[in-house]
Amino acid sequence: MKIGVPKEIKNHEYRVGLTPDSVRELVAHGHEVVVETGAGAGIGALDDDYEAAGASILSDAASVFSAATMIVKVKEPQAIERAMLRPHHILFTYLHLAPDPDQTRDLLNSGATCIAYETVTDARGGLPLLAPMSQVAGRLSIQAGATALEKSHGGAGMLLGGVPGVAPARVVVIGGGVVGAHAITMALGLGADVTVLDRSIDVLGGLSARFGPALRTVYSTRSAVEQYVLDADLVIGAVLVPGAAAPKLVTADHVRRMKAGSVLVDVAIDQGGCFETSHPTTHAEPTYVVDDVVHYCVANMPGGVPRTSTHALNNATLPFALALADMGVEAALEANPHLMNGLNVAGGHLTCKAAAEALGLPFVDPAAALAGKVPAAA
Description:
Layout: E1 2-5, H1 20-28, E2 32-36, H2 47-52, E3 56-58, H3 61-67, E4 70-72, H4 79-82, E5 90-93, H5 101-110, E6 113-116, H6 131-148, E7 170-174, H7 178-189, E8 193-198, H8 201-211, E9 215-219, H9 222-231, E10 234-237, H10 252-257, E11 263-266, E12 287-290, E13 293-296, H11 306-327, H12 329-335, H13 337-340, E14 343-346, E15 349-350, H14 353-359, H15 366-371
Parallel strand pairs: 1-2, 1-4, 2-3, 4-5, 5-6, 7-8, 7-10, 8-9, 10-11, 11-13
Antiparallel strand pairs: 6-14, 12-13, 14-15
Helix pairs in contact: 6-7, 11-12
């Protein structure tokens, strides 16, 4: 199979779909890889490094899309990239369709087969291709929040961990999954006063066992969210409903009543955000202020640390990319139900149920869409 790696074009996105090491593995399996010139510059991978790994370097994205059957990216395709997709293409990348009707429409119209990293599952019910970026984003959320708390960045002027004789900042993490656990790790490490809210007793129990009495665990109810958010200096939104739009747990009324100079970091912004006052921002302009509360809502947080993020992502995605290339898309998906769960668009049909429900569009069974056996009513 011929595999293409375009340069990411989202604002301040420096990650790349394949590292030279991953290219070498694909080439060793007998596949051809074409890479857009400069695609790896953000992680310090030069065109020469890709050529040494066996790839061919092409001058622009249009050439990559034209030459390749499978396109491997990091972020969802932008409008100019979506216009290059054709029915023979396999797109393997993050998609986050639920809050993005324009992208969904374009992918459906393209006829391409689109597999989303974030909905691929594993035998334990986890999301193995989302997990590495969730780990990065969770840790980054505390760095970003600590910076936003500085007075020069609009915050209250607090040091997250305080100093002897001065109380630390109060950090509230909403959601105790992968993002939340890694945010907790960083916040406790810096000496903050940390509370986590979640609706799973098992999750709270696991976090309590992992972090001990340094972490306050609270069952999440509307009353609990209100109580702890209004008292917080830094709130991390770490809620995930796989493939679906994130629930709005912090309302505009909560924000109006929060302390001036407090900070919200919405890690769920890729899925629409879990704060009612959230809207996507970029690394170029990461924050804005609503009712004296600083909001950090960068939609590609791990792009700020592309070397760490790209290598972590490739460690997880490479086995699946090899399976798709070695077996072909239909055989690979049919052989692995967890990879099949990653199929979001096929043959002009939406095959992710959560995204279909969020967007109010028809859902088609992924196996039926892949095989071209969709009932007329669909």
